[in-house]
């Protein structure tokens, strides 16, 4: 799959029902299949670590909701280029003054825009660290795709 065609699921496309861990892993694996080269994008232990690091709230009665999924998508992509401390700071800036659904949809749209046109200018209405972090993810994905294409 070409990166230009990658679709990051929007808020309304994420499951509305609360999911158990194995279902969360399946949803994330499906969403990231075009980017993962057969490797799982996240494991149960990774998710447990994100909760321990307070990057997301704990599961409610062993189930994860749409808010968890949105955060997991962003964390999985940001972890390609940022430390966990940096991810926490970027997420905090992303969510300053806007709801998680709005911030998540902006993230998904910006990532897709940069995958379609890597040299596109940064949006003027995002905090600089957020825009640069999303650009770094897009650049990393382009590097991985190029290396995979040239080294079958």
TrEMBL record:
Pfam families: DUF1836. This is DUF1836 domain-containing protein. It comes from Candidatus Avoscillospira stercoripullorum. It comes from the Bacteria. InterPro entries: DUF1836.
